[in-house]
Amino acid sequence: MWSFFVKLCRTAVTMLGSAILFWISFILLFLLFRTKRPKNFPPGPRPIPIFGNLLQLDLVDLLNDLRKLSERYGKVYSIYLGRKPAVVLNGLQAMREALVTQSVEFAGRPKGLMINHLSEGKGVGMTDGPMWKEHRRFALTTLRNFRMGKPSMEERILGEIFHIVKHLEKNAGKSTDPQTLFHKAGFNIICTVLFGTRFKHEDEFLQLNIRHITENSKIINGLWGMIYDTLPLLRTLPLPFQKAFQNMRMIRKSLADQVSQHKESRVPGEPRDLIDCYLDEMEKRGDDGSSFSENQLVFYLLDLFFAGTDTTSNTLLTAFLYLMTHPDVQERCQKEINEVLGEKEQVSFQDRHRMPYTQAMIHEIQRVADTVPLAPFHATTKDTRLMGYNIPKGTIIIPNLSSGLSEESQWKFPHEFNPSNFLNDEGEFVKPEAFMPFSAGFRVCLGEGLARMELFLILVTLLRRFKFIWPEEAGVPDYTPVFGLIHSPKPYKLGVRLRGSGDLGA
Ligand code: HEM
Predict the structure, then answer these.
(1) Residues with CB under 6 A from ligand 1
(2) Considering the entire predicted model, what is its pTM?
(3) Before 151, cis peptide (omega within 30)?
(4) In this structure, which residue's CA is closest to atom 43 in ligand 1?
(5) Where is the chain membrane-spanning (predicted)?
(6) Cα separation of 98 and 95, whole Å?
Protein backbone atom coordinates (compact mmCIF):
# COMPACT_ATOMS: atom_id res chain seq x y z
CA MET A 1 0.00 0.00 0.00
CA TRP A 2 2.79 2.40 1.05
CA SER A 3 4.89 1.66 -2.08
CA PHE A 4 1.79 2.23 -4.26
CA PHE A 5 1.34 5.63 -2.61
CA VAL A 6 5.04 6.59 -3.20
CA LYS A 7 4.75 5.55 -6.87
CA LEU A 8 1.61 7.62 -7.26
CA CYS A 9 3.36 10.67 -5.78
CA ARG A 10 6.38 10.18 -8.09
CA THR A 11 4.12 9.93 -11.13
CA ALA A 12 2.27 13.08 -10.05
CA VAL A 13 5.56 15.01 -9.59
CA THR A 14 6.84 13.83 -12.99
CA MET A 15 3.58 14.87 -14.66
CA LEU A 16 3.70 18.26 -12.94
CA GLY A 17 7.36 18.75 -14.01
CA SER A 18 6.46 17.86 -17.61
CA ALA A 19 3.52 20.23 -17.54
CA ILE A 20 5.73 23.09 -16.24
CA LEU A 21 8.38 22.31 -18.88
CA PHE A 22 5.68 22.22 -21.54
CA TRP A 23 4.36 25.65 -20.51
CA ILE A 24 7.82 27.19 -20.31
CA SER A 25 8.65 25.89 -23.81
CA PHE A 26 5.28 27.09 -25.04
CA ILE A 27 5.83 30.59 -23.61
CA LEU A 28 9.40 30.74 -24.99
CA LEU A 29 8.21 29.66 -28.43
CA PHE A 30 5.38 32.17 -28.26
CA LEU A 31 7.85 34.93 -27.34
CA LEU A 32 10.26 33.75 -30.05
CA PHE A 33 7.62 34.31 -32.68
CA ARG A 34 6.45 37.53 -31.06
CA THR A 35 9.97 39.03 -31.21
CA LYS A 36 9.94 38.76 -35.00
CA ARG A 37 11.14 41.97 -36.64
CA PRO A 38 8.42 44.25 -38.04
CA LYS A 39 7.95 44.23 -41.83
CA ASN A 40 10.82 45.87 -43.77
CA PHE A 41 12.66 46.58 -40.51
CA PRO A 42 16.50 46.72 -40.63
CA PRO A 43 17.97 43.19 -40.45
CA GLY A 44 20.06 41.82 -37.59
CA PRO A 45 20.89 38.75 -35.52
CA ARG A 46 18.00 36.52 -34.40
CA PRO A 47 16.91 37.47 -30.86
CA ILE A 48 16.40 34.96 -28.05
CA PRO A 49 13.16 35.25 -26.03
CA ILE A 50 13.43 37.49 -22.96
CA PHE A 51 17.16 38.23 -23.52
CA GLY A 52 16.95 39.60 -27.05
CA ASN A 53 20.55 39.75 -28.36
CA LEU A 54 22.08 40.37 -24.93
CA LEU A 55 23.76 36.96 -24.70
CA GLN A 56 25.25 37.29 -28.20
CA LEU A 57 27.04 40.58 -27.45
CA ASP A 58 30.29 41.11 -25.57
CA LEU A 59 29.19 43.91 -23.26
CA VAL A 60 32.76 44.67 -22.21
CA ASP A 61 33.87 45.19 -25.83
CA LEU A 62 30.51 46.18 -27.30
CA LEU A 63 31.91 48.50 -29.99
CA ASN A 64 33.87 45.67 -31.56
CA ASP A 65 30.73 43.49 -31.74
CA LEU A 66 28.70 46.36 -33.20
CA ARG A 67 31.38 46.79 -35.88
CA LYS A 68 31.28 43.08 -36.76
CA LEU A 69 27.48 43.20 -37.03
CA SER A 70 27.77 46.18 -39.37
CA GLU A 71 30.13 44.18 -41.62
CA ARG A 72 27.49 41.44 -41.76
CA TYR A 73 24.19 43.37 -41.91
CA GLY A 74 25.14 46.80 -43.33
CA LYS A 75 25.27 50.38 -42.07
CA VAL A 76 21.73 50.26 -40.63
CA TYR A 77 20.81 47.11 -38.71
CA SER A 78 18.83 46.17 -35.62
CA ILE A 79 19.43 44.36 -32.35
CA TYR A 80 17.03 43.49 -29.54
CA LEU A 81 17.50 44.87 -26.02
CA GLY A 82 15.32 42.27 -24.32
CA ARG A 83 12.04 42.55 -26.20
CA LYS A 84 12.71 46.06 -27.49
CA PRO A 85 14.12 46.45 -30.99
CA ALA A 86 16.88 49.04 -31.43
CA VAL A 87 18.27 50.33 -34.73
CA VAL A 88 22.03 50.90 -34.83
CA LEU A 89 23.33 53.64 -37.16
CA ASN A 90 26.87 53.19 -38.44
CA GLY A 91 29.03 55.55 -40.45
CA LEU A 92 28.61 59.11 -41.67
CA GLN A 93 25.92 58.56 -44.30
CA ALA A 94 23.42 56.74 -42.04
CA MET A 95 24.00 59.14 -39.13
CA ARG A 96 23.70 62.23 -41.32
CA GLU A 97 20.49 60.98 -42.95
CA ALA A 98 18.91 60.24 -39.58
CA LEU A 99 20.28 62.92 -37.24
CA VAL A 100 20.57 65.84 -39.67
CA THR A 101 18.25 65.28 -42.66
CA GLN A 102 15.46 63.85 -40.47
CA SER A 103 16.40 65.71 -37.32
CA VAL A 104 12.81 65.98 -36.01
CA GLU A 105 11.97 62.32 -36.60
CA PHE A 106 15.14 61.07 -34.85
CA ALA A 107 15.36 63.60 -31.99
CA GLY A 108 13.27 61.68 -29.42
CA ARG A 109 14.56 59.80 -26.39
CA PRO A 110 13.55 56.22 -25.51
CA LYS A 111 11.46 55.47 -22.44
CA GLY A 112 11.92 52.83 -19.76
CA LEU A 113 15.74 52.54 -19.79
CA MET A 114 18.05 52.98 -16.80
CA ILE A 115 19.06 56.48 -17.92
CA ASN A 116 15.36 57.52 -17.96
CA HIS A 117 14.72 56.06 -14.54
CA LEU A 118 17.77 57.83 -13.12
CA SER A 119 16.51 61.20 -14.36
CA GLU A 120 12.83 60.43 -13.55
CA GLY A 121 11.78 61.86 -16.91
CA LYS A 122 12.97 65.36 -15.96
CA GLY A 123 15.92 67.60 -16.87
CA VAL A 124 16.95 68.25 -20.47
CA GLY A 125 19.09 65.37 -21.75
CA MET A 126 16.53 62.57 -21.54
CA THR A 127 13.26 64.48 -22.06
CA ASP A 128 11.42 65.36 -25.23
CA GLY A 129 8.53 67.62 -26.21
CA PRO A 130 7.94 71.12 -24.81
CA MET A 131 9.92 70.50 -21.59
CA TRP A 132 13.04 69.57 -23.57
CA LYS A 133 12.63 72.43 -26.06
CA GLU A 134 12.09 75.11 -23.37
CA HIS A 135 15.01 73.94 -21.26
CA ARG A 136 17.38 73.43 -24.16
CA ARG A 137 16.65 76.94 -25.46
CA PHE A 138 17.08 78.40 -21.97
CA ALA A 139 20.47 76.67 -21.47
CA LEU A 140 21.77 77.77 -24.88
CA THR A 141 20.75 81.41 -24.26
CA THR A 142 22.15 81.47 -20.72
CA LEU A 143 25.46 79.91 -21.77
CA ARG A 144 25.72 82.41 -24.65
CA ASN A 145 25.08 85.33 -22.28
CA PHE A 146 27.73 84.01 -19.90
CA ARG A 147 30.24 83.88 -22.74
CA MET A 148 29.92 87.67 -23.06
CA GLY A 149 29.08 88.52 -19.42
CA LYS A 150 31.25 89.50 -16.47
CA PRO A 151 33.18 87.40 -15.55
CA SER A 152 33.16 85.99 -19.10
CA MET A 153 33.24 82.26 -19.75
CA GLU A 154 36.85 82.63 -20.83
CA GLU A 155 37.78 84.33 -17.53
CA ARG A 156 36.03 81.58 -15.55
CA ILE A 157 38.01 78.90 -17.42
CA LEU A 158 41.35 80.75 -17.16
CA GLY A 159 40.68 81.19 -13.42
CA GLU A 160 40.48 77.41 -13.04
CA ILE A 161 43.52 76.81 -15.23
CA PHE A 162 45.56 78.83 -12.74
CA HIS A 163 44.94 76.03 -10.17
CA ILE A 164 45.94 73.27 -12.60
CA VAL A 165 49.18 75.14 -13.35
CA LYS A 166 49.91 75.53 -9.63
CA HIS A 167 49.40 71.81 -9.07
CA LEU A 168 51.67 70.87 -11.99
CA GLU A 169 54.37 73.36 -10.95
CA LYS A 170 54.51 71.61 -7.56
CA ASN A 171 55.01 68.31 -9.38
CA ALA A 172 57.51 69.54 -11.98
CA GLY A 173 60.43 67.14 -12.37
CA LYS A 174 58.29 64.23 -11.13
CA SER A 175 55.39 62.09 -12.28
CA THR A 176 51.92 62.83 -11.01
CA ASP A 177 48.58 61.06 -11.14
CA PRO A 178 46.35 63.12 -13.45
CA GLN A 179 43.21 60.97 -12.94
CA THR A 180 41.35 63.42 -10.76
CA LEU A 181 43.17 66.66 -11.69
CA PHE A 182 41.22 67.22 -14.92
CA HIS A 183 37.96 66.00 -13.41
CA LYS A 184 38.36 68.56 -10.64
CA ALA A 185 39.03 71.29 -13.19
CA GLY A 186 36.08 70.29 -15.42
CA PHE A 187 33.82 70.02 -12.38
CA ASN A 188 34.85 73.46 -11.08
CA ILE A 189 34.32 75.11 -14.47
CA ILE A 190 30.77 73.79 -14.71
CA CYS A 191 30.22 74.73 -11.02
CA THR A 192 31.24 78.36 -11.65
CA VAL A 193 28.65 78.47 -14.43
CA LEU A 194 25.87 76.73 -12.49
CA PHE A 195 26.42 78.02 -8.94
CA GLY A 196 29.07 80.73 -9.30
CA THR A 197 31.38 78.79 -6.97
CA ARG A 198 34.58 76.81 -7.33
CA PHE A 199 35.69 74.23 -4.76
CA LYS A 200 39.14 73.50 -3.37
CA HIS A 201 40.57 70.31 -4.86
CA GLU A 202 40.46 68.69 -1.38
CA ASP A 203 36.81 69.65 -0.81
CA GLU A 204 34.58 66.72 0.14
CA PHE A 205 31.62 67.99 -1.95
CA LEU A 206 33.82 68.05 -5.05
CA GLN A 207 35.46 64.68 -4.44
CA LEU A 208 32.21 62.84 -3.65
CA ASN A 209 30.35 64.27 -6.62
CA ILE A 210 33.16 63.45 -9.04
CA ARG A 211 33.19 59.87 -7.73
CA HIS A 212 29.44 59.51 -8.20
CA ILE A 213 29.51 61.01 -11.69
CA THR A 214 32.39 58.83 -12.94
CA GLU A 215 30.86 55.66 -11.45
CA ASN A 216 27.56 56.35 -13.17
CA SER A 217 29.05 57.01 -16.57
CA LYS A 218 30.62 53.55 -16.42
CA ILE A 219 27.43 51.81 -15.23
CA ILE A 220 25.11 53.37 -17.86
CA ASN A 221 25.59 51.55 -21.23
CA GLY A 222 28.13 49.26 -19.49
CA LEU A 223 27.54 45.60 -18.57
CA TRP A 224 25.13 46.27 -15.67
CA GLY A 225 23.35 49.09 -17.45
CA MET A 226 22.64 46.79 -20.41
CA ILE A 227 21.39 44.05 -18.05
CA TYR A 228 19.06 46.58 -16.38
CA ASP A 229 17.76 47.79 -19.75
CA THR A 230 17.25 44.29 -21.13
CA LEU A 231 15.82 42.34 -18.18
CA PRO A 232 13.16 44.41 -16.36
CA LEU A 233 12.44 41.49 -13.99
CA LEU A 234 15.85 41.94 -12.35
CA ARG A 235 15.52 45.68 -11.73
CA THR A 236 14.49 45.49 -8.08
CA LEU A 237 17.19 42.98 -7.10
CA PRO A 238 20.25 44.19 -5.14
CA LEU A 239 22.57 44.04 -8.17
CA PRO A 240 25.45 46.48 -8.94
CA PHE A 241 23.21 48.79 -11.01
CA GLN A 242 21.53 49.91 -7.75
CA LYS A 243 24.73 51.87 -7.07
CA ALA A 244 23.84 54.23 -9.94
CA PHE A 245 20.53 55.10 -8.20
CA GLN A 246 22.26 55.61 -4.86
CA ASN A 247 24.83 57.92 -6.50
CA MET A 248 22.09 59.88 -8.24
CA ARG A 249 20.22 60.43 -4.95
CA MET A 250 23.42 61.82 -3.38
CA ILE A 251 24.16 64.19 -6.28
CA ARG A 252 20.52 65.34 -6.30
CA LYS A 253 20.66 66.10 -2.60
CA SER A 254 23.77 68.27 -2.99
CA LEU A 255 22.21 70.13 -5.92
CA ALA A 256 18.95 70.70 -4.01
CA ASP A 257 21.05 72.23 -1.18
CA GLN A 258 22.66 74.61 -3.69
CA VAL A 259 19.21 75.69 -4.92
CA SER A 260 18.03 76.35 -1.33
CA GLN A 261 21.14 78.44 -0.58
CA HIS A 262 20.61 80.44 -3.78
CA LYS A 263 16.98 81.14 -2.88
CA GLU A 264 18.15 82.71 0.37
CA SER A 265 21.05 84.76 -0.98
CA ARG A 266 19.86 85.89 -4.45
CA VAL A 267 18.87 89.39 -5.49
CA PRO A 268 16.08 89.03 -8.10
CA GLY A 269 17.09 90.50 -11.47
CA GLU A 270 20.81 90.36 -10.64
CA PRO A 271 21.77 86.79 -11.55
CA ARG A 272 25.20 85.52 -10.52
CA ASP A 273 24.95 82.13 -12.23
CA LEU A 274 22.61 79.71 -13.98
CA ILE A 275 20.59 78.89 -10.84
CA ASP A 276 19.81 82.61 -10.31
CA CYS A 277 18.88 82.99 -14.00
CA TYR A 278 16.52 80.01 -13.71
CA LEU A 279 14.87 81.32 -10.53
CA ASP A 280 14.37 84.73 -12.23
CA GLU A 281 12.86 82.96 -15.25
CA MET A 282 10.51 80.94 -13.00
CA GLU A 283 9.24 84.13 -11.39
CA LYS A 284 8.80 85.80 -14.78
CA ARG A 285 6.77 82.86 -16.09
CA GLY A 286 4.63 82.57 -12.93
CA ASP A 287 1.80 80.06 -13.40
CA ASP A 288 1.75 80.20 -17.21
CA GLY A 289 1.78 76.40 -17.45
CA SER A 290 5.45 76.26 -18.50
CA SER A 291 7.67 73.36 -17.47
CA PHE A 292 9.91 75.52 -15.25
CA SER A 293 9.81 74.41 -11.60
CA GLU A 294 12.14 74.02 -8.64
CA ASN A 295 12.07 70.23 -8.85
CA GLN A 296 12.79 70.35 -12.57
CA LEU A 297 15.69 72.76 -11.84
CA VAL A 298 17.46 70.11 -9.72
CA PHE A 299 17.31 67.52 -12.54
CA TYR A 300 18.30 70.18 -15.07
CA LEU A 301 21.41 71.05 -13.05
CA LEU A 302 22.12 67.37 -12.69
CA ASP A 303 22.16 66.89 -16.47
CA LEU A 304 24.49 69.82 -17.07
CA PHE A 305 26.69 68.77 -14.18
CA PHE A 306 26.92 65.18 -15.40
CA ALA A 307 27.29 66.00 -19.11
CA GLY A 308 29.83 68.75 -18.48
CA THR A 309 32.28 67.01 -16.12
CA ASP A 310 33.25 63.52 -17.25
CA THR A 311 33.27 64.36 -20.97
CA THR A 312 35.82 67.20 -21.04
CA SER A 313 37.96 65.58 -18.33
CA ASN A 314 38.30 62.27 -20.13
CA THR A 315 39.09 64.07 -23.38
CA LEU A 316 41.90 65.92 -21.57
CA LEU A 317 43.18 62.68 -20.04
CA THR A 318 43.30 61.15 -23.52
CA ALA A 319 45.07 64.26 -24.81
CA PHE A 320 47.96 63.94 -22.38
CA LEU A 321 48.27 60.20 -22.94
CA TYR A 322 48.80 60.84 -26.68
CA LEU A 323 50.90 64.01 -26.29
CA MET A 324 53.35 62.28 -23.95
CA THR A 325 53.75 59.34 -26.28
CA HIS A 326 53.94 61.47 -29.47
CA PRO A 327 56.65 64.02 -28.55
CA ASP A 328 56.93 65.19 -32.19
CA VAL A 329 53.29 66.35 -32.14
CA GLN A 330 53.76 67.97 -28.72
CA GLU A 331 56.85 69.88 -29.88
CA ARG A 332 55.21 71.09 -33.08
CA CYS A 333 52.28 72.49 -31.07
CA GLN A 334 54.66 74.15 -28.60
CA LYS A 335 56.58 75.80 -31.42
CA GLU A 336 53.35 77.15 -32.95
CA ILE A 337 52.07 78.33 -29.56
CA ASN A 338 55.35 80.17 -28.86
CA GLU A 339 55.32 81.85 -32.27
CA VAL A 340 51.69 82.96 -32.04
CA LEU A 341 51.58 84.05 -28.40
CA GLY A 342 55.08 85.56 -28.12
CA GLU A 343 55.14 87.72 -24.97
CA LYS A 344 51.35 87.77 -24.57
CA GLU A 345 50.45 87.01 -20.94
CA GLN A 346 47.53 84.66 -21.51
CA VAL A 347 46.05 82.77 -24.41
CA SER A 348 42.55 83.73 -25.60
CA PHE A 349 40.05 81.59 -27.50
CA GLN A 350 40.40 83.94 -30.49
CA ASP A 351 44.04 82.84 -30.88
CA ARG A 352 42.89 79.47 -32.22
CA HIS A 353 42.43 80.96 -35.69
CA ARG A 354 46.20 81.50 -35.91
CA MET A 355 47.09 78.01 -34.67
CA PRO A 356 46.07 75.52 -37.37
CA TYR A 357 48.35 72.72 -36.18
CA THR A 358 47.26 72.98 -32.52
CA GLN A 359 43.62 73.07 -33.65
CA ALA A 360 44.24 69.95 -35.75
CA MET A 361 45.88 68.25 -32.75
CA ILE A 362 42.90 69.02 -30.46
CA HIS A 363 40.39 67.72 -33.02
CA GLU A 364 42.51 64.62 -33.59
CA ILE A 365 42.50 64.03 -29.83
CA GLN A 366 38.70 64.25 -29.82
CA ARG A 367 38.55 61.82 -32.73
CA VAL A 368 40.68 59.16 -31.03
CA ALA A 369 39.20 59.84 -27.57
CA ASP A 370 35.76 58.93 -28.98
CA THR A 371 34.40 60.27 -25.69
CA VAL A 372 30.67 59.43 -26.03
CA PRO A 373 30.84 56.41 -28.35
CA LEU A 374 27.12 55.58 -28.60
CA ALA A 375 25.59 58.94 -27.50
CA PRO A 376 22.62 58.66 -25.13
CA PHE A 377 20.20 56.58 -27.24
CA HIS A 378 17.64 58.42 -29.39
CA ALA A 379 14.10 57.33 -30.36
CA THR A 380 11.94 58.02 -33.39
CA THR A 381 9.18 60.58 -32.80
CA LYS A 382 6.97 59.26 -35.66
CA ASP A 383 6.83 56.39 -38.17
CA THR A 384 9.59 57.03 -40.68
CA ARG A 385 11.91 55.52 -43.30
CA LEU A 386 15.69 55.34 -43.32
CA MET A 387 17.84 54.05 -46.20
CA GLY A 388 14.93 52.03 -47.54
CA TYR A 389 13.82 50.53 -44.19
CA ASN A 390 10.63 51.27 -42.22
CA ILE A 391 11.20 52.44 -38.67
CA PRO A 392 8.10 52.74 -36.47
CA LYS A 393 7.52 55.56 -33.97
CA GLY A 394 9.15 54.96 -30.58
CA THR A 395 11.96 52.70 -31.88
CA ILE A 396 15.24 52.99 -29.95
CA ILE A 397 18.00 54.47 -32.13
CA ILE A 398 21.68 53.91 -31.28
CA PRO A 399 23.88 56.43 -33.12
CA ASN A 400 27.26 54.68 -33.25
CA LEU A 401 29.26 57.94 -33.22
CA SER A 402 32.39 55.87 -32.79
CA SER A 403 31.92 54.26 -36.22
CA GLY A 404 32.07 57.63 -38.03
CA LEU A 405 35.20 58.74 -36.19
CA SER A 406 37.24 55.87 -37.66
CA GLU A 407 35.35 55.18 -40.90
CA GLU A 408 37.94 54.14 -43.46
CA SER A 409 36.40 56.02 -46.39
CA GLN A 410 36.31 59.31 -44.44
CA TRP A 411 39.78 59.72 -42.96
CA LYS A 412 43.31 59.90 -44.31
CA PHE A 413 44.61 57.97 -41.27
CA PRO A 414 41.54 56.31 -39.72
CA HIS A 415 43.45 54.01 -37.35
CA GLU A 416 46.39 56.12 -36.20
CA PHE A 417 46.83 59.28 -34.16
CA ASN A 418 47.77 61.88 -36.76
CA PRO A 419 46.76 65.58 -36.71
CA SER A 420 47.09 65.55 -40.54
CA ASN A 421 43.56 64.15 -40.53
CA PHE A 422 42.54 67.79 -39.98
CA LEU A 423 45.05 69.58 -42.25
CA ASN A 424 44.87 70.20 -46.00
CA ASP A 425 47.86 70.23 -48.37
CA GLU A 426 48.51 73.90 -47.52
CA GLY A 427 48.71 73.08 -43.80
CA GLU A 428 45.38 74.83 -43.12
CA PHE A 429 42.93 73.48 -40.55
CA VAL A 430 39.93 71.64 -42.08
CA LYS A 431 37.13 69.76 -40.35
CA PRO A 432 35.89 66.65 -42.22
CA GLU A 433 32.15 66.04 -42.11
CA ALA A 434 32.62 62.71 -40.30
CA PHE A 435 33.91 64.56 -37.23
CA MET A 436 30.87 64.21 -34.93
CA PRO A 437 32.05 63.70 -31.35
CA PHE A 438 29.29 66.09 -30.20
CA SER A 439 26.71 64.24 -32.34
CA ALA A 440 24.61 66.26 -34.82
CA GLY A 441 21.13 67.62 -35.51
CA PHE A 442 18.58 68.87 -32.95
CA ARG A 443 20.17 66.89 -30.12
CA VAL A 444 23.74 68.02 -30.77
CA CYS A 445 25.63 68.57 -27.48
CA LEU A 446 24.46 71.84 -26.00
CA GLY A 447 27.77 72.37 -24.21
CA GLU A 448 29.85 72.12 -27.41
CA GLY A 449 30.93 75.77 -27.33
CA LEU A 450 31.96 75.57 -23.67
CA ALA A 451 33.77 72.25 -24.18
CA ARG A 452 35.74 73.52 -27.19
CA MET A 453 36.79 76.61 -25.29
CA GLU A 454 37.88 74.53 -22.27
CA LEU A 455 39.93 72.11 -24.38
CA PHE A 456 41.70 74.88 -26.28
CA LEU A 457 42.52 77.15 -23.32
CA ILE A 458 43.64 74.30 -21.04
CA LEU A 459 45.77 72.50 -23.62
CA VAL A 460 47.46 75.62 -24.95
CA THR A 461 48.22 77.04 -21.48
CA LEU A 462 49.68 73.76 -20.24
CA LEU A 463 51.72 73.05 -23.37
CA ARG A 464 53.13 76.56 -23.21
CA ARG A 465 54.30 76.16 -19.61
CA PHE A 466 55.21 72.44 -19.39
CA LYS A 467 56.74 69.58 -21.29
CA PHE A 468 54.97 66.23 -20.75
CA ILE A 469 57.02 63.04 -20.74
CA TRP A 470 55.95 59.39 -20.67
CA PRO A 471 57.62 58.08 -17.47
CA GLU A 472 60.33 55.51 -18.23
CA GLU A 473 58.99 53.05 -15.65
CA ALA A 474 55.46 53.20 -17.15
CA GLY A 475 56.11 50.50 -19.76
CA VAL A 476 54.21 50.34 -23.04
CA PRO A 477 51.27 52.80 -23.23
CA ASP A 478 47.82 51.22 -23.44
CA TYR A 479 45.49 53.32 -25.62
CA THR A 480 42.44 51.02 -25.31
CA PRO A 481 39.72 53.00 -23.51
CA VAL A 482 37.43 51.68 -20.78
CA PHE A 483 33.90 51.43 -22.24
CA GLY A 484 30.76 53.04 -20.77
CA LEU A 485 28.42 55.89 -21.66
CA ILE A 486 31.66 57.89 -21.55
CA HIS A 487 35.01 56.42 -22.62
CA SER A 488 37.97 56.96 -20.31
CA PRO A 489 41.62 56.07 -20.81
CA LYS A 490 43.17 53.50 -18.45
CA PRO A 491 44.96 55.14 -15.46
CA TYR A 492 48.49 56.38 -16.21
CA LYS A 493 51.15 58.69 -14.74
CA LEU A 494 51.93 62.13 -16.17
CA GLY A 495 55.63 63.09 -16.33
CA VAL A 496 55.91 66.90 -15.93
CA ARG A 497 58.87 69.21 -16.69
CA LEU A 498 58.92 73.03 -16.66
CA ARG A 499 59.74 74.64 -19.99
CA GLY A 500 62.26 77.50 -20.15
CA SER A 501 61.34 80.85 -21.74
CA GLY A 502 63.19 80.17 -25.03
CA ASP A 503 62.33 76.47 -25.03
CA LEU A 504 60.63 75.30 -28.20
CA GLY A 505 59.98 71.94 -26.61
CA ALA A 506 62.94 70.27 -28.28
C1 HEM B 1 34.43 67.08 -24.91
C2 HEM B 1 33.33 67.32 -24.27
C3 HEM B 1 31.95 66.86 -24.67
C4 HEM B 1 31.55 65.91 -25.56
C5 HEM B 1 32.43 65.00 -26.42
C6 HEM B 1 30.10 65.88 -25.54
C7 HEM B 1 29.33 65.05 -26.33
C8 HEM B 1 27.95 64.99 -26.28
C9 HEM B 1 27.16 64.05 -27.04
C10 HEM B 1 27.68 63.03 -28.02
C11 HEM B 1 25.86 64.28 -26.71
C12 HEM B 1 24.64 63.48 -27.19
C13 HEM B 1 23.94 64.13 -28.33
C14 HEM B 1 22.86 63.21 -28.86
O15 HEM B 1 22.04 62.76 -28.07
O16 HEM B 1 22.86 62.93 -30.06
C17 HEM B 1 25.83 65.35 -25.74
C18 HEM B 1 24.67 65.85 -25.19
C19 HEM B 1 24.66 66.83 -24.22
N20 HEM B 1 25.75 67.52 -23.72
FE21 HEM B 1 27.69 67.26 -24.26
N22 HEM B 1 29.65 66.80 -24.65
C23 HEM B 1 30.73 67.44 -24.09
C24 HEM B 1 30.71 68.46 -23.15
C25 HEM B 1 29.58 69.01 -22.61
C26 HEM B 1 29.57 70.10 -21.67
C27 HEM B 1 30.79 70.87 -21.14
C28 HEM B 1 28.27 70.32 -21.32
C29 HEM B 1 27.75 71.33 -20.34
C30 HEM B 1 27.16 72.40 -20.57
C31 HEM B 1 27.44 69.36 -22.07
C32 HEM B 1 26.07 69.26 -22.01
C33 HEM B 1 25.31 68.39 -22.76
C34 HEM B 1 23.86 68.26 -22.63
C35 HEM B 1 22.96 69.01 -21.66
C36 HEM B 1 23.45 67.30 -23.56
C37 HEM B 1 22.03 66.82 -23.86
C38 HEM B 1 21.46 67.63 -25.03
C39 HEM B 1 20.05 67.26 -25.42
O40 HEM B 1 19.63 66.12 -25.21
O41 HEM B 1 19.36 68.12 -25.98
N42 HEM B 1 28.29 68.59 -22.84
N43 HEM B 1 27.13 65.78 -25.50
Answers:
(1) 124-125, 136, 303-304, 307-308, 311-312, 315, 371-372, 375-376, 399, 401, 437-439, 443, 445-447, 450-451
(2) 0.91
(3) yes
(4) 445
(5) 12-33
(6) 5
Side chain identity at residue 450, one-letter code: L
Please indicate, yes or no, if residue 11 is contained in any of the structural domains.
Answer: no
For the chain, helix, strand, coil in percent to 5 are: 55, 10, 35
Q: Is residue 365 part of a domain?
A: yes
pLDDT in tens, 284-327: 988 777 899 999 999 999 999 889 999 999 999 999 999 999 99
| Nearest alpha-carbon partner for 309 in 191, 199, 200 | 191
Domain residues for the domain of 478 are 39-498
CA distance 276 to 266: 7
- pLDDT tens, residue by residue, 448-465: 999 999 999 999 999 999
* 442: nearest Cα among 190, 221, 140: 140
Whether residue 333 contacts residue 357, with contact meaning beta carbons closer than 8 Å, is answered with: yes
Q: Confidence class of residue 359 from pLDDT cuts 50, 70 and 90? A: very high
Query: Residue 9 falls within a domain, yes or no?
Result: no
CATH of the domain at 84: 1.10.630.10
Q: Whose CA is nearest to atom 27 of ligand 1?
A: 308
DSSP characters over 447-505: THHHHHHHHHHHHHHHHHHEEEE--GGG-S---PPBPSSS-BPPP--EEEEEPPTT---
pLDDT at 147: 81
For residue 193, tell me if it sits in a domain. Answer: yes
